[in-house]
Amino acid sequence: xxxxxxxxxxxxxxxxxxxxxxxxxxxxxxxxxxxxxxxxxxxxxxxxxxxxxxxxxxxxxxxxxxxxxxxxxxxxxxxxxxxxxxxxxxxxxxxxxxxxxxxxxxxxxxxxxxxxxxxxxxxxxxxxxxxxxxxxxxxxxxxxxxxxxxxxxxxxxxxxxxxxxxxxxxxxxxxxxxxxxxxxxxxxxxxxxxxxxxxxxxxxxxxxxxxxxxxxxxxxxxxxxxxxxxxxxxxxxxxxxxxxxxxxxxxxxxxxxxxxxxxxxxxxxxxxxxxxxxxxxxxxxxxxxxxxxxxxxxxxxxxxxxxxxxxxxxx
Length: 315
Fold this sequence. Notes:
Blueprint: E1 5-9, H1 14-48, H2 51-77, H3 91-120, H4 127-152, H5 156-185, H6 190-217, H7 227-235, E2 240-252, E3 255-264, H8 270-285, E4 289-296
Parallel strand pairs: 3-4
Antiparallel strand pairs: 1-4, 2-3
Helix pairs in contact: 1-2, 1-4, 2-3, 2-5, 3-5, 3-6, 4-5, 5-6
């Protein structure tokens, strides 16, 4: 490394650690609720011949697998870093979120295909039994969603499990609506039509989760960070003459990292510049994992445009 100095600050954040501690306990409770009710919904869907209930039961089956995967990822991600994996296993949580999102996309597609088949050949439905099972499912999913709501804002992985639960909640609500229509009007196509509406809502949430997971894996700039504003904040510091090779990315949920080269006129200012940049990034952007390489202005020459982080020197 040719720079004059380097600063590295690492802080995953107290909120991040708290969320990772609270998430697993709640996920275990939700897993037990989901597995138990899945069996009841399969039986109820088969006896009532309701696609909405059977689709929701299939969704709950994948939920159980998704939640189990989330628990595994959280547990494995806590393994310490080593010489081969210097950042540890935190990214496993993002991989689990990606798998959960992909599973939701498949489920939504299955529901739409089966609904189309049912619309072509409507089948009789036992509306009373369907309503009873769907109402119980709504209660179970409301409890599960409440348990995961807080942790879902802190972890993309837990958010994946939370979206599965929300999909179940929507499925139960849709099944209740379909059952009421069937009981009051006898119109059986209400069941597959409402199933399609639920599938479209699941599809929207799933696509958002997949897109955010892929962005993290591609080390894209987090959506809440303005890279140009970060560069300007650094250049506003009196001793900083130029900033280049600036990168901001997400390591895992709510853990943002930054690296950059800062050009200074006087090497005597190195430590003050390092401290000022780290403090500025924390206060203004919440970035606490900061790596800065210091370069002397009289030795710094731009031979060609920087392909990864275009120079942004002072005007």
